[in-house]
Amino acid sequence: MATAAVADGYTVGVVGATGAVGEEIVSVLSRRGFPVKQLKLFSSARSAGKVKNTPLGDITIQEFSVPEARSCDYVFLAVDGDFAKEYAPQITQDNGPVVIDNSSAWRMDPDVPLVVPEINIAAAKGKKLIANPNCTTSIALMALYPLHKEFGVKKCIVSTYQAASGAGAPGMQELLDETKKYVTTGELPSNKVFAHPLPLNVIPHIDKFQDNMYTKEEMKVTWESRKIMGLPDLRVSCTSVRIPTLRAHSESITIETEKPVSADRAREVLRAAPGVKVVDDPLNNQYPMPLTATGAFDVEVGRIRANDVFGDCGLDFFVCGDQLLRGAALNAVLIAEALVKQTA
Amino acid sequence: MATAAVADGYTVGVVGATGAVGEEIVSVLSRRGFPVKQLKLFSSARSAGKVKNTPLGDITIQEFSVPEARSCDYVFLAVDGDFAKEYAPQITQDNGPVVIDNSSAWRMDPDVPLVVPEINIAAAKGKKLIANPNCTTSIALMALYPLHKEFGVKKCIVSTYQAASGAGAPGMQELLDETKKYVTTGELPSNKVFAHPLPLNVIPHIDKFQDNMYTKEEMKVTWESRKIMGLPDLRVSCTSVRIPTLRAHSESITIETEKPVSADRAREVLRAAPGVKVVDDPLNNQYPMPLTATGAFDVEVGRIRANDVFGDCGLDFFVCGDQLLRGAALNAVLIAEALVKQTA
């Protein structure tokens, strides 16, 4: 499909429309003014038939079916990897619609482009299935890639401060409910979504542990950064940590560069980078924070400073981006926007 | 002084007895069974005269005075740096008592030993004024020093997850009060103690910014690690971040070593290290967390894994220690314990 005239707009499907990412995709389609002719919201049988009030009007949720999904021009998958693995090929086959998949199912498939539009949208050209990166990766790369282009990144060490939204709406709800329980009754927080109670705690464990004792979440930052930036030998180590915040991920990043780097030059480069907001006025208490990055499209970058651990080739910085936006929905919608322009 | 017979025990003064660290010092003196003959609690005029219920009995708080402090054998200063700068010399002069100062006032003075007892207690021998390190530093060094002895640490990159207790009892109270306000009324959190609201937020700013755009808190980790370990050229970069937890600091640490290092060998070394508890069984969801490290004397170390950013000389690990214990009160009391043994 994907052949409707721009004047008419496109039929857009969102699969997993009742989840945190699905809801955010609809919101971003509206905020960005994506040319939607018709919006189809797909969910499991349980939610089907319910009317959902969205920024694009009241829409009756449909149970997902391949033929209905194939009737769209663009389909966003905001569902788990198993679902995406099974259904993405069925939706796209035989000149079906473009599918932008938010799960990790297809990201490392050599035939599937993994795209941050500001970095490698060219890889998506003519493709029917496009993978949206891991949230931590896409947020980090907004700063890392412009710095790489200018200075060359050799080594990258990342420690994350990840919000509950990475575990979806149930994760956010558990954090709020258990926090409320603790601060109002003194009863200790409990947990179902997270491996341990999250309120007032820190959990250095997101996704499954791998043989090398990194988590899969940590390795995604390595694998996906290499693929998106086209740097198969980039040295990356990430420590992924869940903390009690709602929906913006922060990351403390240290890099070693090929060419000498200074904080001033890095700041200049980042100011010119798309999708980045340099928030770096420490003497006026301005630096990236979930408080200010939540709900914003741009990734905040600050605390930019020379790090002499790597002589004159070291830089430290801190990024903060909305996990549901740049980390998911915004990146996905920007891919679709770019494809619309490519085909227009 | 400091000459009373051990059989009798010692007269111990705590200055700043109503603060978070002061209270914890009294608790640790009791938990460790420090030989206290008499406990004197000093505070400002405002609290003087009040009776404080402590694990060592009900004690009437006194207004601080130099002569009263000088009547002690050991004096713990749990007050700000300005106070310590002014009064520490007046208390110790002319063979006065031993003063163990928790502030940063004297830490970098070349004549004042800066001590983590498990590392460099020898530096305290015969000294009247001893500085207790910054909390982030002492917690990190419990793991870093044993690894250094075995493998040689060349580079060290630290990102912290610091609890509200670093800003004292008012910091902890603000976090709890503002969290409660937000989750029960929806009213946005406000702030007086911290630079920004802390509930559900992350603030990459602790202490003042320096000319190099690191904070003083971050530079303390560099300066104090070098002094305590006797490694003036150690390359350290720290990013200090306040997060919404109550009283245990976590730290994500990456090191480059002189000699090749493996996770297994590092784990062995750390299991044999005093003051360290290796909590590193990820497949059973066991790793360092504030939930388990709070209230414990030992610093938890886990998520130990080889980091190939530095070839076969890289290691990542995660530490978590009680900010008020290893980060303050416990370290101070252990210094006093060691001095008692030295003089016995």
UniProtKB/TrEMBL annotation, chains A, B:
Species of origin: Tribonema minus
GO biological process, alphabetically ordered: diaminopimelate biosynthetic process; isoleucine biosynthetic process; lysine biosynthetic process via diaminopimelate; methionine biosynthetic process; threonine biosynthetic process
**What binding partners and quaternary form does the record give?**
Homodimer.
Pathway connected to this protein: Amino-acid biosynthesis; L-methionine biosynthesis via de novo pathway; L-homoserine from L-aspartate: step 2/3; Amino-acid biosynthesis; L-threonine biosynthesis; L-threonine from L-aspartate: step 2/5
Q: Where are the transmembrane segments?
A: none
The reaction(s) catalysed by this protein are: L-aspartate 4-semialdehyde + phosphate + NADP(+) = 4-phospho-L-aspartate + NADPH + H(+)
Q: Which residues form the active site?
A: C135 (acyl-thioester intermediate), H249 (proton acceptor)
Q: What is its EC number?
A: 1.2.1.11
Indicate the segments forming the Semialdehyde dehydrogenase NAD-binding domain, all copies.
11-127
A single GO molecular-function term is: aspartate-semialdehyde dehydrogenase activity
Family note: Belongs to the aspartate-semialdehyde dehydrogenase family.
Name of the protein in question: aspartate-semialdehyde dehydrogenase
- Enzyme class, spelled out: oxidoreductase
Domain of life the protein comes from: Eukaryota
Annotated keywords: Amino-acid biosynthesis, Diaminopimelate biosynthesis, Lysine biosynthesis, Methionine biosynthesis, NADP, Oxidoreductase, Threonine biosynthesis
Pfam families for this protein: Semialdhyde_dh, Semialdhyde_dhC
